[in-house]
Each structure stands twice: as C-alpha cells, then as structure tokens.
Design the sequence.
C-alpha cells in the first residue's frame, strides 16, 4: 500500500463532508437538478473503493493513516478488509442513488439544499464508522451518525411527531453509543490495543479476561440500540417520520446496519463463547418474529417496511450469533441482499406516496400502468425479499436454512422462527410490490403522475443489481462475499452460494416458507385485524414506555434540582463554608496531624508588629461595627495590612494585587449593599448570628491550622529553583511571577481569564435581571424622578 | 459622593491611573506588575470616575461596552497562543522578535500580546460589574 493510495482513501472519507458544505449552494444554483452534480461525490468514492476489491479479494487487509495523539496511542487510521469494503461500497453506491432520488423526491422543497447536505454528512459519518481502525474514531463517527440521523428525522421540524421521533432516536442510539464507548475503552484496557486491526487478533486475551462479560454487554448496548433490537426497536418505526430517502438510506440500507457491522467486526473477538452464542440468537430471534408480526398489522407502506427492517436486522444478529461458517455466510449474504431490496422497496413506497398522495395500502391499487418501471423494480425487489429465485435473497435464504437445520431443540426453535419471519417478510414484500400496482384503481385516488427519472433510477438500479448479483453469483462470491465472510469469521472461508438449488433440506424448508407465505398473503386482511386486536388488548408497548421513562426522568431531575439548588444564597454560602471548614479540619483530626505550637519568631521589627496590630484592630472593628458600611471598610483595613505584610516579606507582586483587590472589593461591596437596599445595620436574631459565627470561626481556625501544618513540613524548592533558573534564559523576563502567569503556565491563565469573563457576564445578567424587575415595579418612580436616563442606558447597550 | 472637589479631581485622577496602569502592564515582565494588576488599576480608575461623575460619562468615554473590551482581550490572549502553532511549536509557546525603532532594539513577544489580553479582560469585566452596580445608585 503506497502513501498515495492511503492519502486518496483519507480524502475519500472526507469528501462527503466537503460536498455537504457545497450542497446548499449547488442546490440554489441548479435547483433539484443539482442532485446530478452532488451525486458525483459519492460516485467517485464508490469507484475509489471499487479499486480495492481486487486487493481485498486476494485476502489482504489494507490499513493506513497517521498518528493523531501519539502520547495516548490515538491515531487517525482506516482499515479496509472484506467487511468494511462491502459496507463502504454499499454506503457510497446506494448513497449515489439516494442523492439523485432526493433531488426528485423533494423537488421544489425550499430546504432541499439543507437536506442534501445532511444526507452527505451522514454518508461521511457512516463511511467513517465502517472504515475506522481506531476505537475513538469509530466512536466519534458512530455518534455522528446518531446526530445526522437526528437532523434527518427531524427534518420536517414543524411537525410534532417528527420532533418526538428525532429526539427518541437520538436518546436511544446516543445512550447506546455511550455504552459502546465504555465497552471499547474496556477492550482497550484489557488488550492494550487501540485499533480494530490489532484487536481482532487478540480475541483470546479478551475471552479470558474477567471483564469479558462486562465488555460484551456494553458493546451490545451500542449494537442493539443502533440496530433496533427488541425491546429497543421502537425508535425505528417512529423514525419513518423522516422523508422517504432517509428511510431508504439510513433506516434500512445503512445506519441501522451499523450495529450488525459492529457485531460482525467483533465476532473474532467475542465469538465462540457461550454468552455470545446465547444472547445474540435470543435477542435476534425475538426481534425477527416480533418485527414480522408487527409488520402484518400495518397498513402504511413505509411502516410495513420499517417493521420488516427490524425483523431483518434481528435475523442478521441471530445468524451472526450462531457463529458457524454457514451462519456467518448467511448473515453476510442476507445483509447485502437486504440493502438492495429494502432500499429499492422504500424508494418505491416513496414514489407511490409522491405520485398518488397516499401510502395507505388499502387505498391504493392499479398503478402499474402509470408507474411501469417502478412496478417492475418493486417486483424484482420483492422476489429478493421473499427469498425466491432469481433474487439475491434466495441465496441468503438457502444459506440460512443450511445453517439452522440441525436436529436439536435449540436449533429447531430458531429454525421455526426463521421460517415464520421469512414467510411473513415475503408477505409484506409482495404486499408492497403488488397491492398498490394491481387490481382496481380506487376512485378517490384522483390523478396519478408518472415518475421522473430521478425518482425511478434508484429503485431500478438496486432491483436490477439484486437480480444480477444472483445471476453472476460466482463473481460476487469471489469479489465480495468470501472476503467479507472471512473477515467476520476471522479465517478464510469460501462462500459457494449459487442460484442452482441444492436438492435437500434447505430447499424443502424454502418451499415450506413459500407455502406459509402464500397462505398468509391470501388471508392478509383477517390476519391484520387479528394482530390489531391483540395489540389493543396488550395496550402497553416500549414506545409508550419510552414516554413514561422520559417523563419520570424529567420529574426526577426537577426534584433533584429543587433539592440541590433551593435558590437561597444563605444556604449556598453556609453549605460551602461548612464544607471548606470540614475538609480542612476533619483530615487533621482523623490522621492526628495537628500542628505544633510555633515558637515566637525572633528579631521582628517594630513596624512589622505595628502592621499586625493594624490587621488585628481591623478585625475587631469588623466584629463590633454597628453598621455594615463600617464593617466593610474595616475589612478593607485588615486586607491592606496583610498586603503591607506581603510587601515587607518580599512579595511585591502579591502585595500590589492584594491592594488593588482590597480597594475594589470595598468599593463593590459598598455598591452592592446600596444596590440591594440592605438595612444599614444587621438586625438578625442572636441564634442565626451564633451559627454564622461558629461557621466563620471553624473556617478561619481551619485555614490557620492548615497553613501552620503546611509550613512545618520541609520546603520543596525544586519548582522555585527551576523558575528562578529559567525565567530569564527561556522566557526573557526577570519577574518570575509574571513569567509564570503569562508564559510558563499561560494556558492556565487563558482558562482563568475566560472564567473571569464568564463570571462577569453572569454577574451582569444577575444585575440586569434585578434591574428589569425593580424597574417594572419602580416605573412610577422613574416618571417622577430625574435619573431615568442613566438607568435606561445600561440595558440598551448590553443588548448591542 | 458627588462633591465639587471629587468631581473636579476625578478626571485627572482617572487619567493618571489609567496611564499608570499601562506603565504597570508594560514593565510587568521584568519588574513587579503585569496585566492582572494593571487591569485592576484601570478598573478602579473607571470606578472612581463613575462614582464621581456618573455612569454615562464613563460609558461615553470608553466608547465600547466594557464587556466587549473584555471579549477583545480574551480573543487577543487566545490568538497569542494560537500564533505559535503556525511556527510549528506547541500551543502558547512564547515567540520573540527584535525589531529596531530609530536604532533602538525593542523586544516584542506573543507573551506581551497575551498579557495585554489579560489586562483588557480584567479591566473590562471589573469595570462592567462596577458600572452596572453604580448605575442603580445614581438613579
């Protein structure tokens, strides 16, 4: 692998984001026809990755990239093997078609440019997920797909249902993503490898680790939420609120497969263990059956497809979990087949919706003559979805049955669920492909337009591919399937699926499936009614559970906030100071580290004593002061005395600052006092004063003892030696304090001044809020008084 | 507070203090001083002016909202850090140049830009708090 090709691949990974930046402009200039231009980007990426097929088919894994944060072993690197290459080709290839399709579907939509931009951004994120070698990159791109999916589901953000679906998808997949991050970090910790290409060879280490199960469960959190496994599936059907190109691209062909991708990628690491071979088939199997049953209940074309997508994802997870060679081959073949037929069928449902104005299967019919290409494409896709020859899905189904057919109870359970799931999916496939197109056209349908090329091109190409890949299965096996299966299995494993049926059990089971499917198809309406009744009887579902959970969460955080933030300054101050005092005094008490009484220093001069006396007088004055102003000024006096002490003991910078801070705090405290309209003297009950007094005393004594204890220890002068030695030669400054602030620890200072400014803004806002409120009360005063102008000045400038 | 003497003296006092604050800022690298102390001096200068002559004259004299001044300061400090990245050294590394003005070599550094940023942030923030508090008092 030479450097040029690696560079090109990195560029290809970045290209979608560049195209996304230009998408709004291109769309503004060229309207919906801009899609032809924008589609060049994914097409170029597709061609680039097509060039890798030969290399990868020869059994090589290509990696490349550059170190990003070498000190943390984080790199920006990619890994291309059979698995990621197949995904990259799917993402860029289907992406090209989707960009074109979006141009036709959202023709004339004012936000088409933004939509294309989101789609391209998603494409870049998804490419990143499958190509990333480094864990952290994988995680970043993983979350980016969640975010772009959020943007796309909520594209029609003026509808409440869209917003809810977007937030729901974000919460579910985002939470799973955090689990994934924790899982990846654990794997990193166990093996010391931060890259997938290293990790896949270290499976033994992971499987022996005591943390194996924890890592597995965390990774599964990510995979199951993303790939909509039961019972976390509910966000996927709701995500159908998005425009149809999104459903076709994200929520069937690519993004939801990210979870399956992750499982396949980690199969060499986690596979072969009891936990893996139990959890995956059980969850996958449940998802498969429930998805198919729920799909039967739907009448909306998109929702029917959405539930079968869930079902298909379940099937892939189940087959990946079985882990035998046939099972992995089946999962891989099915994954590829699914991307083609489901993408095509979604686009078909979008065309029907776009041209006929409804997606309700009961109100559609007889569209075949108006939409001939669409109909043929739908039919071809349905053959693949139903697992009938000559569709690519047939190959996948033969493999599934070959993998599952064993005469033990465990396999039989999954065999039956596979038959039920496949049968029902076949029903839905043909229901989508036949019902809108055949039969009598309902009278209320009105005029139906033909579809333009931008719309029908996508489904036609995908459907044709679904047939061609099956016809040329030998090429497909050698170029795509075998490398991918080998990557998933962790060793070379040849796939030999062809359209020629093997006479044997798999074929017999296929026949059973088809017969079952035909029976259900004929009785689809009563079945749907039965499912509807059943679901109504149950009443509760995870979707409603999500709402209940979110409501509970909001209520809980509200209560917690009310508890932790009661809003009374007095409480905050008291709690803070009690904690400060406790953290100073408690450790000394627990460890018995009280300071010993220091000896009275010798040789102190009279002016040092005088300054200390002034400080003491200031303190006494604070305590005995009648009114607040005197107390504030006396406090300032004490501060000045301390500043003088700093000066006398050779810290001019510190002293200087202390002077200024003391002066300003007296001014500001006095201003605040008048501002808050406090009574000039403190008239609180003695009890309260006593409490405050004890807290203040504890804090003061705590600090004193602590300082005494610290100065008793030996002084480590390495730092001060360093600074005095290097302040001039390195930083060209004699003033060590200043050099430390602005040079040696400049980044600290940058953070500090940011804090200063943010605090200033917060204080300003607080003052403004009070001013706004009191000015509302005191508006009559302003009318009467003459100072109104100065008062209005401030807020007006603040807004500018 | 608005006595005749105070009002007469305040403008001179303020300008002297601001001048002094600049002096403190610039000498800070080699002698006691620096952006933080300078900023505090400048802020107290404006606070005094505000107490003596009211807030509006101060705001007029400053021309910009004190918070914008603080913002510019923060930006300057951040830029001073970023400049070093273009020179291929880590963030916030001090860079020095020694141009000659009329035959006198003047050392200039990103560190000085940074310290000026600190000065502006402190001045702007404290001044805006003080002025906002004084505003109510004057009305």
Sequence:
């Amino acid at each position: 692998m030479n450097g040029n090709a690696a560079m090109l691949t990195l560029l290809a990974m970045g290209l979608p984001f560049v195209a996304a930046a230009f998408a709004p402009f291109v769309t503004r200039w060229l309207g919906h026809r801009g899609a032809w231009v924008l589609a060049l980007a994914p097409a170029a990426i597709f061609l680039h990755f097509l060039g890798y097929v030969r290399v990868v088919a020869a059994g090589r894994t290509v990696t490349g990239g550059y170190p990003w944060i070498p000190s943390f072993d984080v790199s920006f690197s990619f890994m291309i093997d059979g698995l990621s290459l197949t995904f990259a080709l799917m993402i860029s290839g289907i992406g090209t078609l989707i960009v074109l399709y979006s141009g036709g579907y959202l023709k004339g939509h004012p936000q088409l440019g933004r939509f294309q931009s989101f789609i391209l951004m998603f494409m870049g994120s998804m490419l990143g997920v499958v190509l990333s070698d480094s864990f952290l990159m994988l995680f970043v791109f993983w979350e980016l797909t969640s975010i772009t999916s959020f943007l796309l589901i909520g594209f029609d953000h003026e509808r409440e249902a869209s917003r809810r679906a977007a937030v729901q998808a974000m919460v579910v997949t985002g939470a799973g993503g955090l689990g994934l991050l924790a899982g990846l970090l654990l794997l990193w910790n166990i093996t010391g490898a931060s890259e997938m290409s290293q990790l896949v060879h270290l499976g033994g280490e992971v499987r022996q680790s005591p943390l194996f199960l924890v890592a597995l469960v965390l990774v599964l959190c990510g995979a199951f939420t993303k790939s909509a496994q039961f019972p976390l599936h509910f966000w996927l059907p709701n995500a159908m609120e998005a425009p149809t190109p999104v459903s076709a691209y994200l929520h069937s062909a690519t993004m939801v497969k990210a979870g399956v991708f992750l499982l396949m990628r980690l199969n060499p690491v986690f596979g072969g263990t009891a936990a893996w071979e139990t959890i995956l088939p059980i969850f996958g199997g449940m998802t498969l059956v429930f998805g198919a049953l729920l799909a039967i209940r739907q009448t909306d074309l998109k929702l029917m497809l959405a539930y079968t997508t869930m079902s298909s994802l379940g099937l892939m997870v189940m087959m990946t979990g079985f882990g035998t060679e046939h099972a992995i081959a089946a999962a891989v073949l099915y994954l590829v087949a699914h991307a083609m037929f489901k993408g095509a069928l979604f686009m078909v449902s979008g065309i029907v919706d776009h041209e006929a104005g409804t997606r309700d299967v009961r109100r559609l019919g007889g569209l075949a003559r108006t939409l001939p290409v669409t109909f043929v494409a739908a039919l071809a896709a349905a053959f693949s979805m139903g697992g009938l020859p000559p569709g690519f899905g047939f190959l996948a189904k033969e493999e599934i049955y070959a993998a599952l057919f064993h005469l033990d109870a465990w396999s039989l359970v999954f065999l039956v669920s596979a038959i039920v799931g496949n049968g029902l999916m076949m029903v839905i496939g043909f229901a989508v492909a036949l019902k809108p197109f055949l039969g009598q056209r309902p009278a209320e349908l009105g005029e139906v337009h033909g579809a333009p090329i931008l719309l029908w091109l996508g489904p036609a190409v995908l459907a044709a591919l679904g047939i061609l890949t099956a016809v040329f299965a030998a090429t497909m096996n050698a170029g795509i399937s075998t490398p991918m299966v080998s990557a998933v299995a962790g060793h070379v494993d040849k796939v030999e699926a062809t359209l020629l049926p093997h006479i044997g059990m798999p074929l017999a089971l296929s026949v059973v499936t088809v017969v079952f499917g035909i029976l259900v198809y004929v009785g689809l309406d009563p079945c749907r009614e039965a499912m509807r009744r059943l679901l109504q009887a149950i009443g509760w579902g995870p979707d409603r559970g999500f709402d209940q959970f979110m409501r509970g969460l909001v209520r809980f955080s509200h209560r917690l906030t009310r508890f932790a933030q009661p809003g009374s300054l007095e409480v905050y101050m008291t709690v803070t100071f009690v904690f400060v005092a406790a953290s100073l005094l408690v450790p000394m008490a627990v460890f018995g580290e009280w300071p010993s009484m220091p000896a009275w220093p010798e040789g102190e001069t009279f002016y040092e004593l005088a300054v200390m006396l002034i400080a003491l007088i200031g303190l006494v004055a604070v305590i005995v002061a009648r009114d607040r102003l005197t107390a504030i000024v006396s406090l300032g006096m004490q501060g000045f005395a301390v500043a003088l002490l700093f000066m006398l003991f050779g810290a001019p910078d510190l002293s200087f600052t202390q002077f200024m801070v003391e002066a300003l705090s007296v001014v500001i405290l006095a201003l605040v006092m008048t501002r808050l309209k406090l009574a000039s003297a403190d008239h609180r009950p003695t009890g309260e004063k006593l409490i405050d007094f004890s807290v203040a005393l504890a804090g003061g004594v705590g600090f004193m003892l602590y300082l005494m204890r610290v100065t008793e220890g030996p002084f480590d002068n390495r730092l001060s030696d360093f600074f005095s030695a290097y302040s001039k030669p390195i930083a060209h400054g004699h003033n060590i304090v200043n050099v430390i602030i602005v040079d040696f620890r400049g980044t600290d200072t940058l953070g500090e001044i940011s804090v200063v400014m943010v605090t200033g803004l917060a204080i300003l806002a607080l003052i403004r809020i009070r001013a706004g409120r009191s000015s509302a009360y005191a508006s009559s005063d302003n009318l009467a008084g003459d100072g109104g102008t100065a008062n209005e000045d401030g807020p007006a400038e603040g807004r500018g | 507070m608005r006595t005749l003497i105070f009002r007469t003296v305040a403008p001179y006092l303020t300008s002297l203090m601001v001048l002094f604050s600049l002096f403190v800022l610039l000498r800070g690298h080699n002698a006691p001083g620096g952006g933080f102390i300078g900023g505090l001096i400048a802020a107290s200068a404006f606070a005094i002016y505000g107490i003596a002559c009211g807030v509006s004259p101060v705001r007029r004299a400053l021309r910009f909202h004190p918070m914008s001044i603080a913002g510019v300061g923060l930006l300057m400090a951040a830029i001073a850090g970023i400049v070093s990245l273009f020179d291929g050294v880590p963030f916030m590394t001090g860079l020095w140049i020694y141009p000659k003005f009329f035959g006198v070599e003047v050392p200039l550094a990103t560190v000085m830009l940074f310290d000026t940023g600190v000065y502006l942030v402190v001045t702007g923030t404290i001044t805006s708090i003080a002025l906002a508090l004084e505003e109510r008092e004057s009305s």
